[in-house]
Amino acid sequence: MEQLTQLIEKLKPVELRLLRQLYQVKKNGEQNRKLELLNLIVGKKVTTDLEAAKKIYKKAPDSKFSHLKKRLRKDILAILLLPEASQQYRALNAQNYLACEKLITQGRILVHRQLLQQADKLLLKALQIAQDYEFPHLEIQARIHLRRNKTWLEGPPAFDKYNDGIAACFQLYQEIIKAEEYHSRFWHPYFLAENNETELIKNAQKYVQKLKELHEKSSSKVVAAYYYDATIAYYNQFIYQPTKAIPFIHQYIAIAQNGKKVDETALPKAYVQLLFAYIAIGNYQEAITLKETALQYSPPHTVNHYKMMIVYFHAHLYLAQYQEAAQCLATNFQNKMGKVVTPITVESHFYQAYLHFYQKQYPQAQEALLKCTEMTKNKADGAIAYKLLQIYIAFEQQEYYHLSFELENFRKLIEREKQGVARAKIIHKIAAALLRHNGDFQKIRETEQTALQKLTTAKGELVWDFSRYEVLRFEEWIAQK
């Protein structure tokens, strides 16, 4: 029942409507029972096989009920192909991919039924879509059916016309498949956390180079997109050299804007990376200048829109534009994705705490932190970020009596991690010294000058990344006191 429920919950309104219409047209016992089971699940009136079977058959689940579920599932999967592609996907590239697949399948069926001229129109349309959007594997299928169908309609010369492009399609498809492989191998160790930081960087560098070599030999826009995406991530996320990422981001945006061959969902991702790079190098005003342009590619209530608003929050925060920063968070609290992706709401409360902190509203900052305790249970960056803000607040309020406890917890969080915490270790060392000197910032600027200089220079492992655990740069906080 769980899998069937999950499938039904993901149905779009148009699909649910078509399914109900199907059962209402075919009025018989089985159709009525399938409709009854569908409505029970949609209405959340049943959650288990036992509850559903007793409602429909007045007895415990048996083979009859099992077959009913299978038939309902089969109908649901069939109905997924009925709506227009534009109703299934927002992205134009994805819409046309589905439309092309449908046209080829419909064309094959019509050929089988000897409706050759009607099939010809569908297959030619599929061929055009495949060429426009760079779907070489679908172009191969369209060409194979067209060379046979056109030969019947126009004679042998038509065979060569549609056969000749197949070899080039195979070559292009091989290039795209290889690029996708390299792109996946670039990302998998990062997402699966399989290697230490040094190995991750080596792996990333290796596949960026392979993608570069492939890109230089290929005219494919899809291959270019894989190369730019990996290269941007390498400079922005792996070795944190955002100035080197910026030229590649502009190239990525150019191919995404000027052609059909790159999924337009690449555009909001590229703009997020561009904004990230500007914030990282301290060019906050340039990031804000791009606001209207960037947001037009990220519809409200999407994850990318949320990410953009977080980047803009940082830009406004660092420029002391607190009202604008608050508006960014207000927009994110209204983002419907927050109901689906819980960390969105949790993280927004965390940034709200920082907004209060910047405005010296320390009690309100503590109150906002209470709404995002979930961060302490998640990945290391979240727990360290949460604890670091607690430490900032405690020092500002001179609550030295429990700072030793907070610092000890901070130390344990850092030691638990094997990589990516070099800055955090120095921060802990300086903060512990600050506590020993009862919050004497002047003394710390003198005694911990070397450590503070390391944070300021920020080379290698000590580079400051605003998007991780250190929203407020620690050495700047010390310098301002």
What share of residues is helical?
Answer: over 70%
SS-based structural class? Answer: mainly alpha
* Total number of strands: 0
Q: Judging from the principal axes of the Cα atoms, what is the shape?
A: globular
Sheet-strand content, in percent, reads under 5%
Mean pLDDT: 90
- Main sheet, how many strands, which sense, barrel? none
Q: Number of helical runs?
A: 28
Give the CA-CA distance, first to last residue.
Answer: 60 Å
Low-pLDDT stretches are: none
Q: What order do the helices and strands follow? A: HHHHHHHHHHHHHHHHHHHHHHHHHHHH
Radius of gyration: 29 Å
Structure, described:
Among the domains are: 2-79, no CATH class; 85-164; 379-481. The protein has 28 helices and no strands. The chain has helices at residues 2-9, 13-25, 29-42, 49-56, 63-79, 85-88, 92-112, 116-132, 136-154, 157-163, 166-192, 197-217, 221-238, 242-258, 266-280, 284-289, 291-295, 303-318, 322-334, 337-340, 342-358, 362-369, 380-396, 403-416, 422-436, 441-447, 449-457, 474-480. The radius of gyration is 29 Å and the shape is globular.
